[in-house]
Amino acid sequence: MHDRHATERPSMPRRELHNLGNLLPFLWEYRGRALFALICLVASKVANVGVPLVLKAIVDHFGTLEKPPLVLPVALLLGYGALKLSSALFNELRDAVFARVRHRAMRRLSAKVLAHLHQLSLRFHLERQMGAISRDLERGTRSVSSILNYLVFSVLPILVELALVAVILLSRYAPVFALVTFGTVAVYVAFTFAITEWRMDFRHQMNRLDSQANNQAVDSLINYETVKYFGNERIELERYDNTLRDWEAMAVKSQTSMSLLNFGQGAIIALGVTLVMFFAAGAVVDGTMTVGDLVLVNAFLLQVFIPLNFLGIVYRQIKYALADMDLVLGLLAREPEIADAAGAAALRLRRGEVRFEGVDFAYQPERPILQQVSFTIGPGQKLAVVGHSGAGKSTLARLLYRFYDVSAGCILIDDQDLRAVTQDSLRGVIGIVPQDTVLFNDSIYYNIAYGRPQAGRDEIERAAEMAHIRGFIEGLPKGWETVVGERGLKLSGGEKQRVAIARAILKQPRILIFDEATSSLDTPTEQAIQQTLAEVAEHHTTLVIAHRLSTVVDADHILVLEGGRILEQGNHSQLVASGGLYRRMWDLQQRERQQALEKPEPAGPGLRSDAEAE
Protein backbone atom coordinates (compact mmCIF):
# COMPACT_ATOMS: atom_id res chain seq x y z
CA MET A 1 0.00 0.00 0.00
CA HIS A 2 1.34 3.45 -0.83
CA ASP A 3 2.14 5.43 2.31
CA ARG A 4 0.42 8.76 1.89
CA HIS A 5 3.00 10.30 4.24
CA ALA A 6 5.96 9.22 2.13
CA THR A 7 5.70 12.24 -0.18
CA GLU A 8 5.75 14.57 2.83
CA ARG A 9 9.00 13.22 4.22
CA PRO A 10 12.31 15.06 3.61
CA SER A 11 15.05 13.94 1.24
CA MET A 12 17.44 11.19 2.37
CA PRO A 13 20.32 13.39 3.77
CA ARG A 14 17.89 15.63 5.66
CA ARG A 15 16.00 12.57 6.84
CA GLU A 16 19.19 11.00 8.16
CA LEU A 17 19.99 14.13 10.15
CA HIS A 18 16.42 14.17 11.41
CA ASN A 19 16.72 10.50 12.42
CA LEU A 20 19.93 11.24 14.31
CA GLY A 21 18.10 14.07 16.05
CA ASN A 22 15.48 11.58 17.18
CA LEU A 23 18.17 9.87 19.27
CA LEU A 24 18.68 12.95 21.45
CA PRO A 25 15.68 12.29 23.75
CA PHE A 26 17.13 8.85 24.55
CA LEU A 27 20.47 10.43 25.45
CA TRP A 28 18.83 13.23 27.42
CA GLU A 29 17.04 10.76 29.69
CA TYR A 30 20.45 9.57 30.91
CA ARG A 31 22.34 12.82 30.29
CA GLY A 32 24.46 12.34 33.43
CA ARG A 33 25.65 8.95 32.27
CA ALA A 34 26.16 10.21 28.72
CA LEU A 35 28.25 13.16 29.96
CA PHE A 36 30.37 10.92 32.20
CA ALA A 37 30.91 8.52 29.28
CA LEU A 38 32.04 11.48 27.16
CA ILE A 39 34.51 12.57 29.88
CA CYS A 40 35.87 9.01 30.03
CA LEU A 41 36.23 9.03 26.25
CA VAL A 42 38.27 12.27 26.25
CA ALA A 43 40.41 11.06 29.18
CA SER A 44 41.12 7.81 27.34
CA LYS A 45 42.22 9.64 24.21
CA VAL A 46 44.39 12.10 26.16
CA ALA A 47 46.14 9.11 27.72
CA ASN A 48 46.40 7.43 24.33
CA VAL A 49 48.00 10.49 22.71
CA GLY A 50 50.32 10.85 25.69
CA VAL A 51 51.83 7.41 25.07
CA PRO A 52 53.84 8.44 21.93
CA LEU A 53 55.06 11.57 23.75
CA VAL A 54 56.47 9.45 26.59
CA LEU A 55 57.87 6.97 24.06
CA LYS A 56 59.68 9.86 22.30
CA ALA A 57 61.17 10.97 25.62
CA ILE A 58 62.38 7.42 26.35
CA VAL A 59 63.98 7.08 22.89
CA ASP A 60 65.61 10.52 23.15
CA HIS A 61 66.87 9.67 26.65
CA PHE A 62 68.69 6.62 25.31
CA GLY A 63 69.91 8.55 22.28
CA THR A 64 71.73 11.15 24.41
CA LEU A 65 73.82 8.53 26.25
CA GLU A 66 77.26 7.66 24.91
CA LYS A 67 77.46 4.34 26.73
CA PRO A 68 74.90 1.83 28.01
CA PRO A 69 72.98 3.45 30.89
CA LEU A 70 73.52 2.15 34.37
CA VAL A 71 70.11 3.51 35.50
CA LEU A 72 66.87 3.04 33.55
CA PRO A 73 64.49 6.03 33.07
CA VAL A 74 62.13 4.53 35.65
CA ALA A 75 59.77 7.52 35.84
CA LEU A 76 59.29 7.56 32.07
CA LEU A 77 58.75 3.82 31.90
CA LEU A 78 56.24 3.94 34.76
CA GLY A 79 54.53 6.87 33.07
CA TYR A 80 54.35 4.91 29.82
CA GLY A 81 52.69 1.97 31.59
CA ALA A 82 50.35 4.26 33.56
CA LEU A 83 49.14 5.97 30.38
CA LYS A 84 48.52 2.61 28.69
CA LEU A 85 46.60 1.42 31.75
CA SER A 86 44.63 4.68 32.00
CA SER A 87 43.61 4.48 28.35
CA ALA A 88 42.26 0.94 28.84
CA LEU A 89 40.57 1.87 32.16
CA PHE A 90 38.76 4.90 30.78
CA ASN A 91 37.69 2.92 27.69
CA GLU A 92 36.09 0.24 29.83
CA LEU A 93 34.49 2.81 32.15
CA ARG A 94 32.98 4.51 29.10
CA ASP A 95 31.57 1.17 27.84
CA ALA A 96 30.14 0.19 31.23
CA VAL A 97 28.55 3.58 31.91
CA PHE A 98 27.07 3.95 28.41
CA ALA A 99 25.63 0.42 28.28
CA ARG A 100 22.45 1.43 30.12
CA VAL A 101 21.94 4.42 27.82
CA ARG A 102 22.25 2.23 24.73
CA HIS A 103 20.03 -0.63 25.88
CA ARG A 104 17.44 1.73 27.39
CA ALA A 105 17.19 3.45 24.02
CA MET A 106 16.44 0.08 22.37
CA ARG A 107 13.85 -0.69 25.01
CA ARG A 108 12.18 2.72 24.73
CA LEU A 109 12.00 2.61 20.93
CA SER A 110 10.66 -0.97 20.90
CA ALA A 111 7.92 -0.06 23.38
CA LYS A 112 7.13 3.15 21.50
CA VAL A 113 6.76 1.32 18.20
CA LEU A 114 4.50 -1.37 19.67
CA ALA A 115 2.33 1.27 21.34
CA HIS A 116 2.11 3.15 18.03
CA LEU A 117 1.16 0.00 16.13
CA HIS A 118 -1.72 -0.49 18.55
CA GLN A 119 -2.80 3.10 17.86
CA LEU A 120 -2.93 2.62 14.09
CA SER A 121 -6.26 1.84 12.52
CA LEU A 122 -7.80 -1.53 11.79
CA ARG A 123 -7.42 -0.69 8.09
CA PHE A 124 -3.62 -0.60 8.49
CA HIS A 125 -3.55 -3.96 10.28
CA LEU A 126 -5.82 -5.62 7.73
CA GLU A 127 -3.54 -4.47 4.92
CA ARG A 128 -0.23 -5.11 6.72
CA GLN A 129 2.36 -7.75 5.89
CA MET A 130 3.25 -8.99 9.34
CA GLY A 131 6.37 -10.87 8.30
CA ALA A 132 7.88 -7.77 6.66
CA ILE A 133 6.90 -5.51 9.54
CA SER A 134 8.41 -7.83 12.15
CA ARG A 135 11.71 -7.95 10.25
CA ASP A 136 11.72 -4.15 9.81
CA LEU A 137 11.05 -3.67 13.52
CA GLU A 138 13.80 -6.09 14.48
CA ARG A 139 16.35 -4.30 12.30
CA GLY A 140 15.08 -0.85 13.20
CA THR A 141 15.29 -1.22 16.98
CA ARG A 142 18.68 -2.90 16.69
CA SER A 143 19.84 0.05 14.57
CA VAL A 144 19.43 2.45 17.51
CA SER A 145 21.95 0.46 19.52
CA SER A 146 24.27 0.27 16.50
CA ILE A 147 24.19 4.00 15.82
CA LEU A 148 24.82 4.95 19.45
CA ASN A 149 27.51 2.31 19.67
CA TYR A 150 29.35 3.55 16.58
CA LEU A 151 29.01 7.23 17.46
CA VAL A 152 30.25 6.89 21.04
CA PHE A 153 32.78 4.10 20.57
CA SER A 154 34.13 4.85 17.07
CA VAL A 155 33.33 8.26 15.56
CA LEU A 156 33.79 10.51 18.61
CA PRO A 157 37.04 8.79 19.71
CA ILE A 158 38.53 9.27 16.23
CA LEU A 159 37.51 12.95 16.16
CA VAL A 160 38.92 13.59 19.63
CA GLU A 161 42.17 11.84 18.77
CA LEU A 162 42.51 13.73 15.48
CA ALA A 163 42.04 17.03 17.33
CA LEU A 164 44.71 16.17 19.91
CA VAL A 165 47.17 14.96 17.26
CA ALA A 166 46.55 18.14 15.22
CA VAL A 167 47.40 20.34 18.20
CA ILE A 168 50.68 18.45 18.84
CA LEU A 169 51.79 18.29 15.19
CA LEU A 170 51.07 21.98 14.53
CA SER A 171 52.72 23.14 17.74
CA ARG A 172 55.92 21.05 17.57
CA TYR A 173 56.69 20.24 13.92
CA ALA A 174 56.76 21.73 10.46
CA PRO A 175 53.30 22.38 8.97
CA VAL A 176 53.94 19.83 6.20
CA PHE A 177 53.43 16.94 8.65
CA ALA A 178 49.98 18.13 9.71
CA LEU A 179 49.17 19.06 6.09
CA VAL A 180 50.01 15.59 4.71
CA THR A 181 48.44 13.75 7.65
CA PHE A 182 45.12 15.57 7.59
CA GLY A 183 45.11 15.90 3.82
CA THR A 184 45.27 12.11 3.70
CA VAL A 185 42.45 11.92 6.24
CA ALA A 186 40.33 14.33 4.19
CA VAL A 187 40.88 12.41 0.92
CA TYR A 188 40.18 9.13 2.72
CA VAL A 189 36.93 10.41 4.22
CA ALA A 190 35.75 11.97 0.94
CA PHE A 191 36.52 8.78 -1.00
CA THR A 192 34.80 6.63 1.63
CA PHE A 193 31.66 8.77 1.71
CA ALA A 194 31.39 8.97 -2.07
CA ILE A 195 31.76 5.22 -2.68
CA THR A 196 29.51 4.33 0.26
CA GLU A 197 26.74 6.59 -1.03
CA TRP A 198 26.95 4.79 -4.37
CA ARG A 199 26.77 1.40 -2.61
CA MET A 200 23.78 2.34 -0.44
CA ASP A 201 21.29 1.50 -3.18
CA PHE A 202 22.45 -2.11 -3.01
CA ARG A 203 21.78 -2.15 0.73
CA HIS A 204 18.30 -0.67 0.32
CA GLN A 205 17.48 -3.31 -2.27
CA MET A 206 18.83 -6.04 0.03
CA ASN A 207 16.64 -4.77 2.90
CA ARG A 208 13.55 -4.69 0.70
CA LEU A 209 14.13 -8.18 -0.66
CA ASP A 210 15.04 -9.54 2.79
CA SER A 211 11.75 -8.24 4.24
CA GLN A 212 9.82 -9.55 1.23
CA ALA A 213 11.36 -13.03 1.55
CA ASN A 214 10.70 -13.10 5.29
CA ASN A 215 7.09 -12.06 4.73
CA GLN A 216 6.61 -14.80 2.13
CA ALA A 217 8.05 -17.43 4.48
CA VAL A 218 5.91 -16.32 7.45
CA ASP A 219 2.80 -16.03 5.29
CA SER A 220 3.23 -19.55 3.89
CA LEU A 221 3.69 -20.99 7.40
CA ILE A 222 0.67 -19.12 8.80
CA ASN A 223 -1.34 -20.61 5.93
CA TYR A 224 0.24 -24.06 6.40
CA GLU A 225 -3.04 -25.93 6.14
CA THR A 226 -4.12 -24.07 2.99
CA VAL A 227 -0.76 -24.85 1.35
CA LYS A 228 -1.27 -28.53 2.19
CA TYR A 229 -4.89 -28.55 1.00
CA PHE A 230 -3.82 -27.53 -2.51
CA GLY A 231 -0.39 -29.21 -2.57
CA ASN A 232 1.33 -25.93 -3.37
CA GLU A 233 4.53 -26.40 -1.36
CA ARG A 234 6.57 -26.12 -4.57
CA ILE A 235 4.93 -22.81 -5.51
CA GLU A 236 5.63 -21.37 -2.05
CA LEU A 237 9.26 -22.50 -2.22
CA GLU A 238 9.69 -21.06 -5.73
CA ARG A 239 8.28 -17.67 -4.65
CA TYR A 240 10.60 -17.62 -1.66
CA ASP A 241 13.65 -18.77 -3.65
CA ASN A 242 13.01 -16.27 -6.48
CA THR A 243 13.07 -13.42 -3.98
CA LEU A 244 16.21 -14.80 -2.35
CA ARG A 245 17.82 -15.08 -5.80
CA ASP A 246 17.31 -11.34 -6.32
CA TRP A 247 18.61 -10.73 -2.79
CA GLU A 248 21.69 -12.84 -3.59
CA ALA A 249 22.43 -10.73 -6.67
CA MET A 250 22.26 -7.52 -4.64
CA ALA A 251 24.40 -9.07 -1.89
CA VAL A 252 27.12 -10.01 -4.41
CA LYS A 253 27.14 -6.47 -5.85
CA SER A 254 27.38 -5.11 -2.33
CA GLN A 255 30.36 -7.32 -1.51
CA THR A 256 32.30 -6.67 -4.72
CA SER A 257 31.81 -2.91 -4.43
CA MET A 258 33.01 -3.12 -0.82
CA SER A 259 36.21 -4.80 -2.04
CA LEU A 260 36.76 -1.83 -4.37
CA LEU A 261 36.19 0.54 -1.47
CA ASN A 262 38.60 -1.31 0.81
CA PHE A 263 41.36 -1.32 -1.81
CA GLY A 264 40.93 2.42 -2.44
CA GLN A 265 41.09 3.16 1.29
CA GLY A 266 44.23 1.06 1.68
CA ALA A 267 45.92 2.84 -1.24
CA ILE A 268 45.17 6.31 0.19
CA ILE A 269 46.55 5.37 3.63
CA ALA A 270 49.66 3.75 2.14
CA LEU A 271 50.38 6.91 0.11
CA GLY A 272 49.90 9.18 3.13
CA VAL A 273 52.09 7.11 5.44
CA THR A 274 54.86 6.90 2.84
CA LEU A 275 54.89 10.67 2.31
CA VAL A 276 54.98 11.45 6.03
CA MET A 277 57.79 8.98 6.67
CA PHE A 278 59.82 10.46 3.79
CA PHE A 279 59.51 13.95 5.30
CA ALA A 280 60.32 12.66 8.80
CA ALA A 281 63.33 10.67 7.67
CA GLY A 282 64.65 13.68 5.77
CA ALA A 283 64.26 15.89 8.84
CA VAL A 284 66.23 13.38 10.95
CA VAL A 285 69.02 13.36 8.38
CA ASP A 286 69.04 17.19 8.38
CA GLY A 287 69.18 17.21 12.18
CA THR A 288 65.93 19.16 12.60
CA MET A 289 64.22 16.14 14.17
CA THR A 290 65.48 13.51 16.56
CA VAL A 291 64.98 9.78 16.28
CA GLY A 292 62.43 10.18 19.08
CA ASP A 293 60.52 12.64 16.87
CA LEU A 294 60.54 10.08 14.07
CA VAL A 295 59.14 7.47 16.45
CA LEU A 296 56.56 9.98 17.70
CA VAL A 297 55.33 10.86 14.20
CA ASN A 298 55.21 7.20 13.25
CA ALA A 299 53.25 6.35 16.42
CA PHE A 300 50.79 9.16 15.69
CA LEU A 301 50.31 7.88 12.16
CA LEU A 302 49.54 4.41 13.50
CA GLN A 303 47.13 5.82 16.07
CA VAL A 304 45.32 7.91 13.48
CA PHE A 305 45.32 5.60 10.46
CA ILE A 306 44.61 2.28 12.18
CA PRO A 307 41.25 3.53 13.56
CA LEU A 308 40.72 5.27 10.22
CA ASN A 309 40.79 1.85 8.60
CA PHE A 310 37.60 1.13 10.51
CA LEU A 311 36.04 4.53 9.77
CA GLY A 312 34.93 3.26 6.38
CA ILE A 313 33.26 0.25 7.99
CA VAL A 314 31.78 2.47 10.70
CA TYR A 315 30.41 4.93 8.16
CA ARG A 316 28.86 2.13 6.14
CA GLN A 317 27.34 0.57 9.22
CA ILE A 318 25.94 3.91 10.39
CA LYS A 319 24.42 4.46 6.94
CA TYR A 320 22.94 0.96 6.99
CA ALA A 321 21.67 1.47 10.54
CA LEU A 322 20.13 4.80 9.54
CA ALA A 323 18.43 3.08 6.60
CA ASP A 324 17.08 0.42 8.96
CA MET A 325 16.07 3.04 11.51
CA ASP A 326 14.28 5.01 8.79
CA LEU A 327 11.85 2.12 8.34
CA VAL A 328 10.80 2.30 11.98
CA LEU A 329 10.69 6.08 12.17
CA GLY A 330 8.64 6.11 8.97
CA LEU A 331 6.18 3.82 10.70
CA LEU A 332 6.12 6.11 13.76
CA ALA A 333 5.49 9.07 11.45
CA ARG A 334 2.33 7.43 10.14
CA GLU A 335 -0.65 9.18 11.70
CA PRO A 336 -3.43 7.02 13.18
CA GLU A 337 -6.53 7.14 11.01
CA ILE A 338 -8.76 7.17 14.10
CA ALA A 339 -7.69 9.49 16.91
CA ASP A 340 -9.37 11.02 19.92
CA ALA A 341 -10.64 14.54 19.28
CA ALA A 342 -8.88 17.37 21.11
CA GLY A 343 -10.39 17.58 24.57
CA ALA A 344 -12.37 14.34 24.14
CA ALA A 345 -14.09 13.32 27.37
CA ALA A 346 -14.72 9.85 28.75
CA LEU A 347 -18.02 8.28 27.74
CA ARG A 348 -20.67 8.83 30.43
CA LEU A 349 -22.76 5.68 30.31
CA ARG A 350 -26.20 6.15 31.84
CA ARG A 351 -28.89 4.07 30.18
CA GLY A 352 -26.89 2.33 27.47
CA GLU A 353 -28.95 3.46 24.46
CA VAL A 354 -27.26 3.02 21.07
CA ARG A 355 -28.44 5.05 18.09
CA PHE A 356 -27.35 5.07 14.44
CA GLU A 357 -28.54 8.19 12.59
CA GLY A 358 -28.32 8.29 8.78
CA VAL A 359 -25.03 6.38 8.73
CA ASP A 360 -23.11 6.06 5.45
CA PHE A 361 -19.84 4.20 5.26
CA ALA A 362 -17.40 2.91 2.63
CA TYR A 363 -14.02 1.19 2.96
CA GLN A 364 -13.20 2.64 -0.46
CA PRO A 365 -15.06 5.68 -1.80
CA GLU A 366 -16.12 3.87 -4.98
CA ARG A 367 -17.71 0.99 -3.05
CA PRO A 368 -20.32 2.07 -0.46
CA ILE A 369 -21.06 -0.47 2.29
CA LEU A 370 -23.77 1.24 4.36
CA GLN A 371 -26.25 3.81 3.10
CA GLN A 372 -28.60 5.85 5.29
CA VAL A 373 -28.76 3.28 8.09
CA SER A 374 -30.78 4.46 11.07
CA PHE A 375 -31.94 2.47 14.09
CA THR A 376 -32.03 2.60 17.88
CA ILE A 377 -31.26 -0.08 20.45
CA GLY A 378 -33.01 0.90 23.66
CA PRO A 379 -31.48 0.21 27.09
CA GLY A 380 -31.67 -3.50 27.81
CA GLN A 381 -33.06 -4.28 24.36
CA LYS A 382 -31.81 -6.88 21.89
CA LEU A 383 -31.60 -5.81 18.26
CA ALA A 384 -30.63 -8.32 15.58
CA VAL A 385 -29.24 -7.62 12.12
CA VAL A 386 -29.57 -10.30 9.45
CA GLY A 387 -28.91 -10.48 5.75
CA HIS A 388 -26.83 -12.14 3.09
CA SER A 389 -23.01 -12.08 3.17
CA GLY A 390 -21.62 -8.70 2.15
CA ALA A 391 -24.73 -6.83 3.26
CA GLY A 392 -22.69 -4.80 5.79
CA LYS A 393 -23.69 -6.55 9.02
CA SER A 394 -20.24 -6.90 10.62
CA THR A 395 -19.37 -3.36 9.58
CA LEU A 396 -21.92 -2.14 12.13
CA ALA A 397 -19.88 -3.71 14.93
CA ARG A 398 -16.64 -2.18 13.66
CA LEU A 399 -18.25 1.25 13.51
CA LEU A 400 -19.69 0.88 17.00
CA TYR A 401 -16.21 0.05 18.28
CA ARG A 402 -14.96 3.05 16.26
CA PHE A 403 -12.39 1.09 14.33
CA TYR A 404 -13.53 3.36 11.50
CA ASP A 405 -15.37 6.68 11.42
CA VAL A 406 -18.65 6.98 9.54
CA SER A 407 -18.62 8.72 6.15
CA ALA A 408 -21.86 10.53 6.96
CA GLY A 409 -24.35 10.60 9.81
CA CYS A 410 -23.40 9.74 13.37
CA ILE A 411 -23.47 7.02 16.02
CA LEU A 412 -24.46 7.93 19.56
CA ILE A 413 -24.42 6.19 22.92
CA ASP A 414 -26.63 7.95 25.45
CA ASP A 415 -26.72 10.96 23.09
CA GLN A 416 -22.92 11.23 22.95
CA ASP A 417 -21.28 11.11 19.52
CA LEU A 418 -18.62 8.40 19.46
CA ARG A 419 -16.20 10.85 17.80
CA ALA A 420 -16.44 13.15 20.83
CA VAL A 421 -15.47 10.58 23.47
CA THR A 422 -12.21 8.75 24.15
CA GLN A 423 -11.71 5.42 22.43
CA ASP A 424 -10.60 3.73 25.65
CA SER A 425 -13.78 4.68 27.51
CA LEU A 426 -15.94 3.65 24.53
CA ARG A 427 -14.38 0.22 24.14
CA GLY A 428 -14.41 -0.32 27.88
CA VAL A 429 -18.21 -0.52 27.94
CA ILE A 430 -18.60 -2.84 24.94
CA GLY A 431 -18.04 -6.59 24.87
CA ILE A 432 -17.95 -8.70 21.71
CA VAL A 433 -18.01 -12.32 20.64
CA PRO A 434 -16.53 -12.02 17.13
CA GLN A 435 -17.23 -14.24 14.17
CA ASP A 436 -13.54 -15.12 13.76
CA THR A 437 -12.10 -15.72 17.20
CA VAL A 438 -8.31 -15.39 17.34
CA LEU A 439 -6.60 -16.49 20.55
CA PHE A 440 -3.17 -15.79 21.98
CA ASN A 441 -0.62 -18.59 21.88
CA ASP A 442 -0.97 -19.06 25.63
CA SER A 443 -3.06 -21.04 28.10
CA ILE A 444 -6.84 -21.27 27.99
CA TYR A 445 -6.88 -19.59 31.41
CA TYR A 446 -4.92 -16.61 30.05
CA ASN A 447 -7.20 -16.27 27.04
CA ILE A 448 -10.38 -16.20 29.13
CA ALA A 449 -8.84 -13.93 31.78
CA TYR A 450 -7.93 -11.49 28.99
CA GLY A 451 -11.50 -10.21 29.15
CA ARG A 452 -10.77 -8.71 32.59
CA PRO A 453 -7.18 -9.41 33.71
CA GLN A 454 -7.84 -8.34 37.30
CA ALA A 455 -10.66 -10.90 37.75
CA GLY A 456 -10.25 -13.66 40.33
CA ARG A 457 -9.99 -17.34 39.44
CA ASP A 458 -13.51 -18.09 40.70
CA GLU A 459 -14.93 -15.42 38.35
CA ILE A 460 -12.97 -16.87 35.43
CA GLU A 461 -14.19 -20.39 36.19
CA ARG A 462 -17.78 -19.16 36.47
CA ALA A 463 -17.51 -17.38 33.10
CA ALA A 464 -16.23 -20.61 31.54
CA GLU A 465 -19.08 -22.55 33.11
CA MET A 466 -21.65 -20.10 31.75
CA ALA A 467 -20.07 -20.52 28.31
CA HIS A 468 -20.39 -24.33 28.60
CA ILE A 469 -16.64 -24.90 28.28
CA ARG A 470 -15.49 -25.48 31.86
CA GLY A 471 -16.06 -29.24 31.72
CA PHE A 472 -14.10 -29.49 28.50
CA ILE A 473 -11.19 -27.49 29.96
CA GLU A 474 -10.98 -29.48 33.17
CA GLY A 475 -11.07 -32.73 31.20
CA LEU A 476 -7.86 -31.83 29.34
CA PRO A 477 -4.57 -33.37 30.56
CA LYS A 478 -3.17 -29.92 31.47
CA GLY A 479 -6.53 -28.39 32.31
CA TRP A 480 -6.55 -24.60 32.47
CA GLU A 481 -2.84 -24.42 31.57
CA THR A 482 -3.38 -26.07 28.18
CA VAL A 483 -1.72 -23.93 25.50
CA VAL A 484 -4.07 -23.33 22.58
CA GLY A 485 -1.43 -22.85 19.86
CA GLU A 486 -0.80 -19.89 17.57
CA ARG A 487 -4.09 -18.08 16.85
CA GLY A 488 -5.81 -20.87 18.82
CA LEU A 489 -5.26 -23.43 16.07
CA LYS A 490 -5.30 -26.38 18.50
CA LEU A 491 -8.96 -25.69 19.32
CA SER A 492 -11.90 -26.39 17.09
CA GLY A 493 -13.93 -23.45 15.81
CA GLY A 494 -16.69 -24.12 18.34
CA GLU A 495 -14.29 -24.34 21.26
CA LYS A 496 -12.65 -21.07 20.27
CA GLN A 497 -16.02 -19.36 20.13
CA ARG A 498 -16.95 -20.65 23.56
CA VAL A 499 -13.67 -19.22 24.90
CA ALA A 500 -14.64 -15.92 23.27
CA ILE A 501 -18.07 -16.08 24.90
CA ALA A 502 -16.49 -16.75 28.31
CA ARG A 503 -14.13 -13.82 27.76
CA ALA A 504 -17.03 -11.49 26.91
CA ILE A 505 -18.99 -12.69 29.95
CA LEU A 506 -15.99 -12.01 32.19
CA LYS A 507 -15.64 -8.42 30.90
CA GLN A 508 -19.15 -7.60 32.21
CA PRO A 509 -19.88 -4.89 29.61
CA ARG A 510 -23.08 -2.86 29.45
CA ILE A 511 -23.27 -3.15 25.65
CA LEU A 512 -22.86 -6.55 23.98
CA ILE A 513 -22.18 -7.49 20.37
CA PHE A 514 -22.64 -11.05 19.15
CA ASP A 515 -21.15 -11.20 15.66
CA GLU A 516 -22.17 -14.64 14.31
CA ALA A 517 -21.46 -15.87 17.86
CA THR A 518 -22.65 -19.42 17.22
CA SER A 519 -21.59 -19.80 13.60
CA SER A 520 -19.01 -22.51 14.43
CA LEU A 521 -21.20 -24.49 16.81
CA ASP A 522 -23.04 -27.67 15.91
CA THR A 523 -26.80 -27.75 16.40
CA PRO A 524 -26.92 -29.39 19.88
CA THR A 525 -24.20 -27.09 21.23
CA GLU A 526 -25.87 -24.07 19.66
CA GLN A 527 -29.14 -24.92 21.34
CA ALA A 528 -27.38 -25.40 24.69
CA ILE A 529 -25.57 -22.09 24.49
CA GLN A 530 -28.45 -19.98 23.18
CA GLN A 531 -30.01 -19.94 26.62
CA THR A 532 -26.67 -18.85 28.08
CA LEU A 533 -26.41 -16.01 25.57
CA ALA A 534 -29.93 -14.96 26.45
CA GLU A 535 -29.00 -14.91 30.15
CA VAL A 536 -25.81 -12.97 29.46
CA ALA A 537 -27.66 -10.44 27.31
CA GLU A 538 -30.43 -9.89 29.85
CA HIS A 539 -30.52 -6.27 31.00
CA HIS A 540 -27.77 -5.43 28.48
CA THR A 541 -28.07 -3.39 25.31
CA THR A 542 -27.35 -6.08 22.74
CA LEU A 543 -26.55 -6.05 19.03
CA VAL A 544 -26.75 -9.49 17.44
CA ILE A 545 -25.33 -10.00 13.96
CA ALA A 546 -26.53 -13.33 12.67
CA HIS A 547 -26.77 -15.59 9.70
CA ARG A 548 -28.82 -18.29 11.44
CA LEU A 549 -32.24 -16.75 11.95
CA SER A 550 -33.08 -19.32 14.66
CA THR A 551 -30.69 -17.41 16.95
CA VAL A 552 -32.61 -14.14 16.73
CA VAL A 553 -36.28 -15.15 17.00
CA ASP A 554 -36.38 -13.69 20.53
CA ALA A 555 -34.92 -10.31 19.49
CA ASP A 556 -36.96 -7.22 20.32
CA HIS A 557 -36.33 -5.86 16.86
CA ILE A 558 -34.78 -7.31 13.70
CA LEU A 559 -33.23 -5.42 10.80
CA VAL A 560 -32.83 -7.05 7.38
CA LEU A 561 -29.87 -5.53 5.53
CA GLU A 562 -29.53 -5.82 1.78
CA GLY A 563 -26.94 -3.91 -0.24
CA GLY A 564 -26.08 -1.73 2.74
CA ARG A 565 -29.65 -0.53 3.26
CA ILE A 566 -32.34 -1.57 5.72
CA LEU A 567 -34.77 -3.52 3.55
CA GLU A 568 -37.14 -4.75 6.26
CA GLN A 569 -37.54 -4.40 10.00
CA GLY A 570 -39.80 -5.64 12.76
CA ASN A 571 -39.95 -8.57 15.17
CA HIS A 572 -39.72 -12.20 14.05
CA SER A 573 -43.49 -12.73 13.72
CA GLN A 574 -44.01 -9.55 11.77
CA LEU A 575 -41.20 -10.30 9.33
CA VAL A 576 -42.33 -13.89 8.73
CA ALA A 577 -45.83 -12.66 8.11
CA SER A 578 -44.68 -9.99 5.66
CA GLY A 579 -43.47 -12.64 3.19
CA GLY A 580 -40.37 -10.69 2.16
CA LEU A 581 -36.67 -11.54 2.15
CA TYR A 582 -36.67 -12.51 5.83
CA ARG A 583 -39.48 -15.03 5.21
CA ARG A 584 -37.61 -16.58 2.29
CA MET A 585 -34.42 -16.87 4.35
CA TRP A 586 -36.38 -18.38 7.25
CA ASP A 587 -38.07 -21.02 5.10
CA LEU A 588 -34.76 -22.00 3.47
CA GLN A 589 -32.96 -22.35 6.81
CA GLN A 590 -35.80 -24.34 8.34
CA ARG A 591 -35.57 -26.88 5.52
CA GLU A 592 -31.78 -27.12 5.94
CA ARG A 593 -32.19 -27.52 9.70
CA GLN A 594 -34.71 -30.30 9.27
CA GLN A 595 -32.43 -32.16 6.89
CA ALA A 596 -29.54 -31.81 9.36
CA LEU A 597 -31.63 -33.20 12.23
CA GLU A 598 -32.55 -36.25 10.15
CA LYS A 599 -28.84 -37.13 9.82
CA PRO A 600 -26.75 -38.52 12.70
CA GLU A 601 -24.77 -35.71 14.38
CA PRO A 602 -20.99 -36.29 14.08
CA ALA A 603 -18.88 -36.13 17.20
CA GLY A 604 -17.50 -32.64 17.78
CA PRO A 605 -13.74 -32.30 17.49
CA GLY A 606 -11.84 -31.84 20.72
CA LEU A 607 -8.51 -30.26 21.39
CA ARG A 608 -6.11 -31.52 18.76
CA SER A 609 -2.93 -33.19 19.87
CA ASP A 610 0.42 -31.82 18.75
CA ALA A 611 0.71 -34.65 16.23
CA GLU A 612 -2.70 -33.88 14.79
CA ALA A 613 -1.97 -30.16 14.71
CA GLU A 614 1.17 -30.84 12.78
The average pLDDT is 81
Residue stretches low in confidence (pLDDT < 50, at least 5 long) are 1-10, 602-614
Distance between the termini: 33 Å
**Biggest sheet, spatial arrangement of strands:** 6-7-8-3-9-10
Rg over alpha carbons: 36 Å
Largest sheet: 6 strands, mixed
The helicity comes to 55-70%
What is the number of E strands? Answer: 10
- As for the number of domains, it is 2
CATH architecture of the largest domain: Up-down Bundle
Q: What percent strand?
A: 5-15%
Count of DSSP helices? Answer: 20
Assign the CATH superfamily of the largest domain.
Answer: ABC transporter type 1, transmembrane domain
> Given the helix and strand composition, which structural class is it?
alpha/beta
**Run of helices and strands:** HHHHHHHHHHEEEHEEHEHHHHEHEEEHHH
Class of the largest domain, according to the CATH hierarchy?
Mainly Alpha
Q: The CATH topology of the largest domain is what?
A: ABC transporter transmembrane region fold
Task: Sum up the overall morphology in one term.
Answer: elongated
